[in-house]
Amino acid sequence: MIVAENLTRRFGDRIAVENLSLEIAEGEVFGFLGPNGAGKTTTVRMLAGLLAPTGGRAVVAGVDVVAQPQRVRTLVGILTEHPGLYEKLSAWHNLKFYADLYDLPNPQAQIEKYLRLLGLWERRFEPAGTFSKGMKQKLAIARALLHEPRVLFLDEPTSGLDPEAAKTVRDFIAQLASEKRTIFLCTHNLHEAEQLCTRIGLMRQRLIRVGSPTSLKRELYGRQIVIELQEPWTASEDLHLPFVRSVQRDDRRLLVELDDPEQHNPTLIKRLVELGAQIQFVREQDRTLEEVYLELISEEQR
Amino acid sequence: MTLKRVRVVIVKEWREAFKGGKTVWIGTVAIPLILLGISLFQLFHISDFRAIPPEELPRVVGAVFLVPLLYFLMFPLVIPHSIAIYAIMSEKEQKSLEPLLAMPLRTGELFLAKTLASVLPAVGITWVAFGLFLVVIQALLPASVLELAWQQFSPLWGMALGLFAPLAATFMTLAAMAIATRVSDLRTAQLLSSFAMLPVLMSAFFLVLQETLSRPELLGLLSVGLLVLDMWLLLLNVKLFGREEILTRWR
Ligand SMILES: Nc1ncnc2c1ncn2[C@@H]1O[C@H](COP(=O)(O)OP(=O)(O)OP(=O)(O)O)[C@@H](O)[C@H]1O
Ligand SMILES: [Mg+2]
Q1: Nearest alpha-carbon partner for A157 in A294, A144, A216, A51
Q2: A136: which of A83, B46, B127, B212 fits an S-S bond (Cβ 3.0–4.6 Å)?
Q3: What ipTM was assigned to the predicted interfaces of this complex?
Q4: Does A165 share its domain with A274?
Q5: Which residue range forms the structural domain that includes residue A110?
Q6: Cβ–Cβ < 8 Å for A169, A161
């Protein structure tokens, strides 16, 4: 649904996005992470036909963004960094304006559908300027969806929202994903990315790494098993198991890095018990995406 | 270029300006109405036409009808001022340009819509005001005065309303838009664009106070000058109004 090849954008001497190559399949929720100024918004603007790349190419929903930006804009929906609503106009008139620009055959029905879905129907005649931040964000999301785009760009949809509003928005995104829409999600909320995204791209001017949250974690840390013991581990022998890559001891805890724990854990535990370990708990070490993110970014800085 | 999209944007501009509060309203409707009122008041109160000896009448009519003419030259300059500035500044302040540019809307359509949204009411209101003016004088002035007024003024009125008004409204709109795209706050934009209307206004004053009556073509000349200015401003605006330009430089 989204293909980018060496997509590049310069602003004068500054390179905002450099040689970005990426492929996103239909129905994917792709999380786009990266520090401030990494080039996320610039990438979205290029992919949504808003800003011309200075190099490379991209095809979105089957249309070349350089050759036919106007066509791309009719096919994709975009939630921009700022909601950018007409504050003096009512929620209804805001959406009516965009619906007319999209030249929808049934504008009223579409507006009603999304105002109801996002819980704004009752307040449709109030000026958007009187809305809370969360309501404005929802209205902006409705705007991005009016024309039922198959590809949706969301630039920090939950930034600045309270936890409850953020959750509503996240649930809504999950619902959109279940409708098989392709979603390109820029976010600084790593927990959100982990929850929603099938794949993650880590960006800092260039694309640093791409993968599913789980595979990124594994790639970085291997798989580790935490074994909690009743007594501190004092045995001096080596485990002598070929699949074990490393063992860290830490008072009453063992941190074992190994291949294929599903297969080898029973052997590992048997061996530990033979060596006199008093095992209380065995679990897999769960890395958060945050750890992965920080690790990759600092790796990149070195 | 589709007219539907242009129309949709124009309607949005008007709806927004309508809700935009006093400044826009006063500039668009109140000032012209007040000017119209003043000019009519002067016409009826300063001169008691019946008391004037017939041989003096042409000179008096020539003098008293000059002032309303001046006002009608001001209308198209004053009206676009607030609408045109509002059309740009409010988009900037609300950060609504990016979502707007994300629509299937060409920059040319957007530019045309914003320009028309300001030129159309300016010309329309000027014409309506002039219509009112004609109706009132028709009803209240003696036939002899009316006849003289038509004789002396119809070429000027024609030029002022048919030529000067649209060109001046376009000039003011383009000037205000060029200024508004470049500055970041409303007050500065308003101040600078009121300066823009001064030279045109001054030359109009100058012409009217000069021998305009005997040489109506002077007003035509002023219009040609405006036309040249309009073309130049149009080029400037088209350059300032690129999609990239708007996205990356309008802050
Ligand atoms: N219009 C512009 N003119 C000049 N430089 C720009 C422009 N837009 C973006 N940049 C630069 O490009 C780089 C990437 O900016 P971008 O807004 O894409 O980052 P981002 O990843 O979205 O950041 P954030 O997380 O803060 O939203 C930054 O260095 C920024 O200063
Ligand atoms: Mg950004």
Answers
A1: A144
A2: A83
A3: 0.84
A4: no
A5: 2-211
A6: yes
